[in-house]
Amino acid sequence: MRLFDRYLLRELLTPLAYCLGGFLVFWTSYDLFTDLDKFQDAKLHLFDVIEYAFAMMPGFLVTVLPVALLLALLYTLTNHARHNEITALRAAGISLWRLCVPYLLVGFVASIALFALNEIGVPQSNEWAERILDRYVHKADNTQSQFHGFTNARANRVWIFNEYRPQKAEMSGSIVVNWTLPDGSTRKLYADRAIFSNPGWTFYNVKEFEQTNETAPVVPLFKTNVNVLVISNFNETPAEIENEIQMSEYESLHSRKLNVPLSVLWEYLQRHPNLPRAEAGKWWTKFYGRLAEPWTCLVVVLIAIPFGVASGRRNLFVGVAGSIFICFTFFVLQQVGLALGTGGYLPPWLAAWLPNMAFGATGLLLTARVR
Prior knowledge:
Mean pLDDT: 84
Largest sheet: 8 strands, antiparallel
Number of strands: 8
Distance between the termini: 25 Å
Structural class: alpha+beta
Number of helices: 13
Shape: elongated
Radius of gyration: 27 Å
């Protein structure tokens, strides 16, 4: 690494640290003030609230990192341009593309870090935050009662139940399982409780019925209720059920903790290959959107370079105003693209990557035209 590379990096990393610190303090303070009622209900102490703030830090960092990088980069480049440092380096025979290498490296590293935070750090930190909130006021037996069932499309099997306890891999509350056999007949099973027995499931207080065709009568298979019934070929696993619960909550609620990782989205989409077109478009758009989101940091660098390196003695606040305008435009285009993908007007991959491609191509074009 040459001397000017180290100089450019140092001049960028210092304001980046200040921007990140400032944004994180502001974001954390705002979040803590808005959640005061939640902390009181959870009976948290001062140190618990501080721990909670640290637990939520990765989620805040995902939000503020691209904005902080854009602001720091525009500030740094504008400062260099005011003192004609970029002009001097280019006069010394260093091309603009070569000058951009340290900035592109920072953008690439930030994108990788953002991807890791999004997929690993944020889910774990959200679980940590939930444990803090439950430290003094516990949820009853870790029961998730809002979820009512899921469909195993590969096995033509539909499960319906009222409650699921993930720690015990146990479901309860008027369990109903419907499935279709290879000969076209259907079965319906009723039970009060079911526990994953690996392989299969163990049902308690069971009634089972069969219908050979749509016009045939429904016939009970047992004269009386069966106390315990083990069905080993029911291959639905607790992980699949919990995945379905996560996706159901993600669809019905709007909460930070439901920031579903790519692995969960991928598992859900693979388990439901025949989703309706509108629903498939929605989930695939979200999937590609999560893939595209981290690379916003690299796109930020590409679009900031031509705006920042233009020669002239400009006010440093030009960089601040430019970053606000670019962030607003990018956000609008991102939301429009996701809406078009969710609505089926654009292919999901194109809808998710549209802002990155548009801003990245614009940045490269404008950089090539800089004199």
